[in-house]
């Protein structure tokens, strides 16, 4: 598993047969109660704080907020709290690009070099489509020696998209543009710049004009610094301290000794990462939102409200991405779950991990937020988190929850 903070732990497909628990229907008080137990189990085994919101399209969403006891000293979690949704932002950025495609201002076959001369290595062979579906051949800048101290908050530096593109390596192993899927935040840094050049507006202005304004997403905005909206409550995010982080990632990422997240020390070898500046993530992951707001966006998108049919079809044309649970389209993940196929994205920043999906029609939606990203990569925590996401997704789809999940 790569150390990629703008990709949350993707929902893994489950091949086991799903059976209803005794006396339990897909949507019932018993199912709701069991989902709450799974949320509490996830919170106490490593997710620390969990928000679950299931909207079956009937106007009566199930809303759950659970947290580890000690975290209440920092903040009492509520379902409506603001949250850094990380790479879910990519779906929004892709929507903005495809709106411009529909207006013939951008073509999916345009080269990066056309829009950003000299900004991206090999840009003359990389198209807008390749940026959107991560087949550009670009690697990621996250673990480069230049950027890692900013990722962890140890270095306070404001990065421009141009600077991040300049330190972006090629894929390892190398791949030609259009050849293979490989997730990279650099792709969406470039797309943000292309959007601004094509429209003459800032990304923040486009988001307000095209998405959050029309959809009345009053609790959503693009972060421009490390501060939060002082008028709203926000989730406190945590990550393991340096010693525990190295143990969790052992065998997957070889971290140098002492690499850890900046922030106040908290119980159980955790660090409060809420004040780490996320603005580097920008078009790749800079949105702050709530579960209800982002479900509003994703349901509007997948129900056809934001894009013409032609562009929606392009968005859902996927390349193989087994690490994401299925396929990756143009800023949209196709995830094959135990209870059916869902569409959406995952997100992660220091202290924040999220999975948000809808059914194929955009009628039903689910959001699961966890107040840690790397903390749920621990085996026990990952198992509990996966069980929660699977159960919440099945309930969203109107199917019985998997009966073999923990706390069942």
Your description of this structure?
This protein is an alpha+beta fold and 408 residues long. The protein has 13 helices and 14 strands. The protein has helices at residues 29-47, 89-102, 112-115, 128-132, 148-151, 161-166, 185-199, 203-212, 242-249, 282-285, 291-302, 309-315, 379-396, and strands spanning 49-55, 62-67, 83-84, 221-222, 238-240, 265-266, 270-272, 287-289, 319-321, 326-328, 333-337, 340-349, 352-358, 365-370. It has an eight-stranded antiparallel β-sheet, with helices on both faces. Strands 3-8-4 form a three-stranded antiparallel β-sheet. It has a three-stranded antiparallel β-sheet with strand order 5-7-6. Helix 1 (29-47) packs antiparallel against helix 13 (379-396) and helix 2 (89-102) runs parallel beside helix 7 (185-199). The longest helix is centred in the first third of the chain and has 19 residues, at 29-47. It is globular, with a radius of gyration of 20 Å. Mean pLDDT is 91; it is low at 1-25 and 404-408.
């Amino acid at each position: 598993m790569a150390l990629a903070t703008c990709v949350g732990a993707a929902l893994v497909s489950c091949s086991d047969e799903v059976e209803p628990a005794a006396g339990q229907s897909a949507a019932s008080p018993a199912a709701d109660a069991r989902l709450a137990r799974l949320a509490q189990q996830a919170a106490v085994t490593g997710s620390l704080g969990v928000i679950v919101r299931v909207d079956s399209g009937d106007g009566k969403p199930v809303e759950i907020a659970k947290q580890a006891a000690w975290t209440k000293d920092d903040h009492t979690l509520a379902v409506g709290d603001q949250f850094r949704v990380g790479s879910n932002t990519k779906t929004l950025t892709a929507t903005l690009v495809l709106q411009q495609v529909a207006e013939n201002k951008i073509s999916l076959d345009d080269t990066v070099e056309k829009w950003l001369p000299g900004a991206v290595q090999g840009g003359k062979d990389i198209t807008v489509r390749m940026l959107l579906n991560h087949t550009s051949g670009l690697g990621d800048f996250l673990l480069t020696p230049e950027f890692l101290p900013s990722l962890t908050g140890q270095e306070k530096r404001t990065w421009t998209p141009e600077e991040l593109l300049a330190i972006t390596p090629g894929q390892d192993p190398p791949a030609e543009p259009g050849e293979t899927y490989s997730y990279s935040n650099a792709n969406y840094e470039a797309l943000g710049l292309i959007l601004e050049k094509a429209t003459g507006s800032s990304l923040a202005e486009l988001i307000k004009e095209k998405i959050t304004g029309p959809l009345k997403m009053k609790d959503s905005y693009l972060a421009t610094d490390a501060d939060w909206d002082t008028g709203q409550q926000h989730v406190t995010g945590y990550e393991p301290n340096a010693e525990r982080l190295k143990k969790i990632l052992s065998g997957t990422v070889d971290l140098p000794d002492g690499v850890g997240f900046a922030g106040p020390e908290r119980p159980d070898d955790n660090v409060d990462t809420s004040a780490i500046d996320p603005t580097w993530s920008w078009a790749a992951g800079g949105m702050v939102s709530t579960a209800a707001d982002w479900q509003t966006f994703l349901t509007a998108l997948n129900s056809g409200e934001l894009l013409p049919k032609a562009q929606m079809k392009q968005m859902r044309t996927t390349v193989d991405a087994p690490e994401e649970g299925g396929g990756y389209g143009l800023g949209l993940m196709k995830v094959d779950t135990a209870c059916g196929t869902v569409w959406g994205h995952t997100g992660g920043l220091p202290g924040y991990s999220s999975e948000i999906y809808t059914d194929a029609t955009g009628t039903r939606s689910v959001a699961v937020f966890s107040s840690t990203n790397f903390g749920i990569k621990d085996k026990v925590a990952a198992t509990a988190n996966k069980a929660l996401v699977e159960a919440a997704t099945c309930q969203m789809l109107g199917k019985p929850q998997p009966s073999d999940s923990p706390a069942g």
